[in-house]
Amino acid sequence: MSMITKERSVPNGVVLDITGDLTYANREKFKTAVEKIRQRGDRYLILNMADVRFVDSSGLGLLALVSQNFKLSQGQVSMLKPQSYVREIMVLANIQKLIPVYDNEQEAVSGFKQAA
């Protein structure tokens, strides 16, 4: 399945709504969307994973890389509402140690305020 990304502003950051699969086949689209946000100078990114059905090893690697790139810019990446299957993959890969996971957008935005 292909991927659709849509960004929207929230207090102190940007939410990237992702629909589809975060896989090797979709890596360029994801990297381009995230890099556009980072290059613009936004320091706080929330990845809304509510409509992501599948993440492969390439997607996990991208998440780790994106988190690292934002940290180098004194920023932060958070993840919002991953579906149960995707959440399970994140736990198995220990991604939550790099990227905080939230169940609602208000908590994710509040997490940025604490980090700022």
Notes on the structure:
- This protein is α/β, with parallel strands linked by helices.
- Helices cover about 40% and strands about 30% of the residues.
- The chain contains four helices and five strands.
- It has a five-stranded mixed sheet with strand order 1-2-3-4-5, sandwiched between helices.
- The relative contact order is 0.19.
Largest sheet: 5 strands, mixed
**Averaged pLDDT:** 92
User: What gyration radius follows from the Cα positions, in whole Å?
Assistant: 13 Å
Shape: globular
Poorly predicted segments: none
> What is the count of helical runs?
4
* Percent in helix: 40-55%
Count of DSSP strands = 5
User: What is the ordering of alpha helices and beta strands?
Assistant: EEHEHEHEH
Strand residue percentage: 25-35%
Q: Strand pairing plus helix content: what structural class?
A: alpha/beta
> Order of strands across the widest beta sheet?
1-2-3-4-5
| End-to-end Cα distance | 36 Å
Keywords:
single chain; 116 residues; five-stranded mixed β-sheet; 32% strand
What's the short version?
With 116 residues, the protein is of the alpha/beta class. The protein contains 4 helices and 5 strands.
How is the secondary structure organized here?
Elements: E1 3-10, E2 13-22, H1 27-39, E3 44-55, H2 57-72, E4 76-80, H3 84-92, E5 101-102, H4 105-115
Parallel strand pairs: 2-3, 3-4, 4-5
Antiparallel strand pairs: 1-2
Helix pairs in contact: 1-2
